[in-house]
Amino acid sequence: MAVENDYSLVFDKGSKEGYRWISPTEAPSIDAKGDLMVGTHDDNMARLPVGPNGSILVADSSHTTGIRWDSSVEVTTEAFNFGGKALGGIGEPVQPSDVSTKNYVDLTAAALAIALG
Q: What is the pTM of this model?
């Protein structure tokens, strides 16, 4: 089969051969730094444009791609803003720079109070 330049071979379980050639205009394309190719449904994909600076990817089945960008949690090098949400699943501190749980602080304060009398 003769194919023009720049065509791409893609899997197509609906075709007799199990594949087909697509033109550059049919294929999803990466348009910008940070764009992602994501599955939308059986054997199909789409371009998910890069999100706003500091946003994170969140699984969300209500969106066509199944994921979306979320800016409600700010990710910076300075500090985290959790938008009023609690941070859970923290283990007890091991290193001096580890974050402390409320339980660890309460137990340490109680032990100090007992030690000081």
A: 0.45
